[in-house]
Design a protein that fits this description.
The protein is mostly beta strands. Strand 20 and strand 21 form a beta hairpin. The radius of gyration is 18 Å and the shape is globular.
């Protein structure tokens, strides 16, 4: 599924050798003209959550909807816990950290996080019922990092990661180990701030993959097995192609030890 301002598009592939694509518009009831729409599907349950960036300061404003049947039926949320901020909203989620479970019972198997930045700082709010009701927001960072952040990801152990392209001149993962209650900045030593967001992937073994445009000239990958406390030696994945200008990494991870990063690059 794909989210635009006023459309939620569903594509179904039919056939095997030469699959045909059937595109249908299944708009959420909260779809409207906005500035930065986002969509996330929970791979564990199949639930899809869409969210709009409307600049609304009131988190009760209907900006989000959820569906369990790929858009045939939508349920509007009751707010996002925080206003939609200025830019770079993101929604994601995954397992709870069992050592820091929320006190109240939760009606959905996974935690859902909505994050957005507001010029100087950024905030995240957690949802425990699959995208309908969000709890209070928590500041993830203030002026220690640049306002814009990447997309929130959660690992199988419940740790949550929000990447940022500029924290004290370095790129970093802003990390929570208590289901979004508190956050810590884990910079990548020796990295240099870039102009586009870094991206994080977390495999089923809990290994974190961090891809970033180092000073926008090198696409670098580093990994961590201890939630960003330390990082592996950075590796320039574009060097053999002679790349000198890179942007927009997107990381995805699967089984333990398996991950891939896509990005734009040019030798000019």
């Amino acid at each position: 599924m794909f989210q635009s301002d006023v459309q939620t598009l569903r594509v179904t592939f039919k056939g095997c050798s030469f699959p045909r694509a059937l595109w249908e518009n299944k708009p959420a009831p909260t779809s409207q003209q906005d500035f930065d729409p986002i969509l996330w599907s929970d791979p564990a349950t199949g639930r899809t959550i869409v969210h709009l960036l409307t600049f609304a300061a009131n988190p009760a404003v209907g900006e989000s909807s959820v569906t369990d049947n790929d858009g045939d039926l939508w349920v509007p949320s009751k707010g996002s816990g925080i206003g939609s901020g200025v830019d770079h909203q993101t929604v994601g989620g995954g397992a709870y950290n069992p050592s820091a479970l929320p006190a109240a019972p939760h009606a959905y198997p996974n935690a859902v996080y909505y994050c957005s930045q507001a010029l100087v700082d950024a905030s995240c709010a957690r949802n425990d019922d699959g995208g309908i009701n969000y709890g209070p927001s928590t500041i993830t960072y203030r002026d220690e990092c640049g306002g814009l952040h990447g997309h929130v990801k959660a690992g199988p152990d419940g740790w949550v990661y929000l990447p940022n392209k500029g924290c004290g001149g370095e790129q970093a993962a802003v990390v929570s180990g208590d289901n979004g209650l508190t956050w810590k900045i884990q910079p990548v030593p020796g990295s240099t701030s870039g102009g586009s967001d870094p991206s994080i992937g977390v495999d089923k073994g809990g290994k974190v993959y961090f891809g970033y445009g180092d000073e926008d000239t090198k696409m670098v990958v580093t990994t961590s097995t201890n939630h960003g406390a330390t990082w592996s030696q950075p590796y320039d994945v574009g060097a053999k192609f002679g790349l000198n200008n890179v942007a927009y990494p997107a990381f995805v991870a699967g089984d333990a030890g398996r991950a891939a990063v896509a990005f734009l690059g040019t030798p000019t």
